[in-house]
């Protein structure tokens, strides 16, 4: 089998907020079609790491290499980079003044200049795919949390990104709505989307993840396939964390 | 009372002319004020110190001086170098004045939009200006509508100050008619009714707009 393409590479990434050092010397590698799941306690830096990958947070030092190109915030057009890196947020962040379809077609039309006809066609296809084919003309305020998050996933996919980032996509959902979102993400992973997922859903991490990364206090403590991390963790801290969640 | 109705009905033609001038003055000044307000609001949220100072200075001067003083300075002061028609002296004075208040309304409503909206737009590859125009401003505008409506009402009533530089708008008409007849009060009641009706119509309009914009709630 040929070596698969490297989508994201992070080397010695450091990030502080004022005096608070939140990421220490992070190294990370994500290959094409990998699903990488970041787990760890709140405040361990996993969301910050994810946000650094599409430059919503700007690193202090280290390298971030996206699809082979080292990206620096001050020299690169981040808008171009972000077009290939979709992001799904904990609180959905749908545009409340636009309909469901309006949310999905906004960026393809405004950023990529795709015609309305084409954007609508693709938008409807994506909304059908996430199971919201009957909600095109509804405003987000009429949707449940799970539906909102699925719209947010469709909105990100509409830019045809090569990489999708998920920042605790189910943490703001009522328990009974978590499943539908995870199911959508699982399908996406099965289709070969490259994904980096920050989550507290250990079941998802185990079932869908190709790699699981355990972070604590701004450092990567352990990286491995799910069975290794969940069944035979090497590090004491990983064990302690898993004991506390299960 | 009978006298008031006689005067109210008998003076319709002159008051309609005054009304027309009041409306032109208000619409022109408020349109310019919106442009000024948006511009100053952008300076204030630019995160560039010098631009913020310019905006703060502008707001300080406009809010710190009476509108009538501003109009007089524009009309009499500028007349020294460049004769400015009284319509434009009043119109620009009113626009600069409302602009400062509108700037604060717009800035406040922009800053009230959750940070996640900007992040979501940027994460889709939208640049700053697209994010502002397509995502932030439409939402901010919705929130600003009640306060803007209020400011427009104030602007319309403030246009009565234009009479002091000789414009025969509504208040100017009532004042002239009163002094010609040595009988002020019925004319002031008459002009009050005109203002009340304008403000009522505007209020209904703003309420309808609010309802229309609320479809996405």
TrEMBL record, chain A:
Origin: domain of life: Bacteria
Membrane topology reported for the UniProt record: Peripheral membrane protein
SUPFAM superfamilies found in the cross-reference section: P-loop containing nucleoside triphosphate hydrolases
Domain ABC transporter residue range list: 8-242
Gene3D superfamilies noted in UniProt: P-loop containing nucleotide triphosphate hydrolases
Keyword Cell membrane: yes
One Gene Ontology CC term in the entry: plasma membrane
Transcription in keyword set: no
This protein's UniProt keywords: Amino-acid transport, ATP-binding, Cell membrane, Membrane, Nucleotide-binding, Transport
Signal peptide: none
GO MF terms, alphabetically ordered: ABC-type amino acid transporter activity; ATP binding; ATP hydrolysis activity
PANTHER family in the cross-refs: AMINO ACID IMPORT ATP-BINDING PROTEIN, GLUTAMATE_ASPARTATE IMPORT ATP-BINDING PROTEIN GLTL
Family: Belongs to the ABC transporter superfamily.
Official protein name in the record: Amino acid ABC transporter ATP-binding protein (PAAT family)
Species whose genome carries this gene: Streptohalobacillus salinus
TrEMBL record, chain B:
GO CC annotation: ATP-binding cassette (ABC) transporter complex
Positions in coiled-coil regions: none
PROSITE patterns: ABC_TM1 (PS50928)
Transmembrane intervals: 20-45, 57-76, 82-103, 184-209
Gene Ontology biological process: amino acid transport
Family named by the database record: Belongs to the binding-protein-dependent transport system permease family.
Protein name from the UniProt record: Amino acid ABC transporter membrane protein (PAAT family)
Annotated organism of origin: Streptohalobacillus salinus
Lineage: Bacteria, Bacillati, Bacillota, Bacilli, Bacillales
């Amino acid at each position: 089998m040929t070596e698969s393409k490297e989508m994201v590479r992070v080397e010695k990434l450091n990030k502080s907020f004022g005096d608070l050092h939140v990421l220490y010397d992070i190294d990370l590698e994500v290959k094409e079609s990998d699903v990488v799941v970041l787990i760890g306690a709140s405040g361990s830096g996993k969301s910050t790491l994810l946000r650094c990958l599409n430059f919503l947070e700007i690193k202090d030092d280290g390298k971030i290499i996206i699809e082979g190109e080292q990206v620096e915030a001050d020299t690169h057009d981040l808008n171009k980079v972000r077009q290939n890196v979709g992001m799904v947020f904990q609180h959905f962040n749908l545009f409340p003044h636009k309909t469901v379809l309006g949310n999905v077609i906004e960026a393809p039309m405004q950023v990529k200049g795709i015609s309305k006809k084409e954007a609508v066609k693709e938008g409807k296809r994506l909304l059908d795919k996430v199971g919201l084919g009957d909600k095109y003309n509804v405003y987000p305020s009429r949707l449940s949390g799970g539906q909102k998050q699925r719209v947010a996933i469709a909105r990100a996919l509409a830019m045809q990104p090569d990489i999708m980032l998920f920042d605790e996509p189910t943490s703001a959902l009522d328990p009974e709505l978590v499943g539908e979102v995870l199911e959508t993400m699982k399908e996406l992973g099965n289709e070969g989307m490259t994904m980096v997922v920050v989550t507290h859903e250990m079941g998802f991490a185990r079932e869908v993840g190709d790699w699981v990364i355990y972070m604590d206090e701004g450092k990567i403590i352990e990286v491995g396939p799910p069975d290794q991390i969940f069944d035979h963790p090497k590090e004491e801290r990983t064990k302690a964390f898993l004991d506390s969640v299960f | 009372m009978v006298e008031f109705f006689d005067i109210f009905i008998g003076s319709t033609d002159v008051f309609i002319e005054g009304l027309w001038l009041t409306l032109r003055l208000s619409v022109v000044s408020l349109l310019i004020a919106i442009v000024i307000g948006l511009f100053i609001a952008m300076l204030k949220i630019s995160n560039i110190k010098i631009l913020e100072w310019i905006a703060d200075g502008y707001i300080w001067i406009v809010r710190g001086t009476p509108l009538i003083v501003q109009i007089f300075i524009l009309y009499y002061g500028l007349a020294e170098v460049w004769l400015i028609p009284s319509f434009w002296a009043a119109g620009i004075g009113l626009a600069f004045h409302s602009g400062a208040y509108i700037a604060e309304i717009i800035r406040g409503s922009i800053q009230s939009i959750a940070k996640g909206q900007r992040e979501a737009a940027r994460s889709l590859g939208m640049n700053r200006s697209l994010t502002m125009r397509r995502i932030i401003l439409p939402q901010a505008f919705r929130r600003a509508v009640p306060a803007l409506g209020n400011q427009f009402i104030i602007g319309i009533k403030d246009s009565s100050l234009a009479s002091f530089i000789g414009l025969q708008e509504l208040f100017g008409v009532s004042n002239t008619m009163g002094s010609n007849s040595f009988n002020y009060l019925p004319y002031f009641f008459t002009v009050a009714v005109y203002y009340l009706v304008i403000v009522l119509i505007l209020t209904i309009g703003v309420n309808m707009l609010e309802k229309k914009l609320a479809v996405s709630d």
